[in-house]
Amino acid sequence: MRRLNYSIFGLILASLAFFSMGYFHEELTYQLNIEMNAPQDKVFNHYASPDSMPQWLSGVDQLELVSGSPGKEGSIWTASIQSDKTLNNQLTLTAYQEPKIFSFHLDTGSQQVFSTAEFSTQDGKTLIQIHNKVKGNTLLWKSILYFAEDTIKQRALYDFQAFKKQVEVNIANTDQEENE
After folding, report:
1. Which of 7, 21, 70, 157 could pair with 146 in a Cys bridge, judged by C-beta atoms 3.0 to 4.6 Å apart?
2. CA triplet 46, 69, 77: central angle to 5 degrees?
């Protein structure tokens, strides 16, 4: 009986510790910097394209326009995400300044993602600074964010390395076709 009491007490303490992390750490903020050997306008257009995003962004199957116009602030998209096919994942374009700024807000129901990508050119290369903020909508999700911080950052880095590779290969193929 004593072991059961200690086990229950230990479980309660572990649960309190887990949920306290979400209480004190409500959001995850991080930045990524990417340098690409491609013209800024082409990089921006590829990044902002709803057709290309599912090719490099993990988990996103499709983006479908719900209201507004592509490339217009306030346009709303439904994002089909592999793990949440039954949920309405709403992506709202919050800033669009071609070829410099692309911002969106993604509401997955359990999380809010705020992302801004800033594009610039330096020494003939395109630089992208990506600022992401992820907020959990519940104490459970806030706690999960705290414990999954490294995994989330690594996944984002992987996605943007895939983006870089995809753009540089597409640009090289396009340039080669133009030269033939």
Report:
1. 21
2. 75
Burial per residue of 48-69, b for 16 or more beta-carbon CB atoms within 10 angstroms, e otherwise = bebebbbebbeebeebeeeeee
pLDDT digits 0-9 by tens, 119-172: 999 999 999 999 999 999 999 999 999 899 999 999 999 999 999 998 988 876
Q: How far apart are CA 77 and CA 70, in angstroms?
A: 9
- Residue 62, both tokens: 């499709």
Query: What's the pLDDT band for 180 if we cut at 50, 70, 90?
Result: low
Task: Look up the CATH superfamily of 26-179.
Answer: START domain (3.30.530.20)
Cα separations (Å) of 125 from 40, 42, 85? Answer: 8, 12, 37
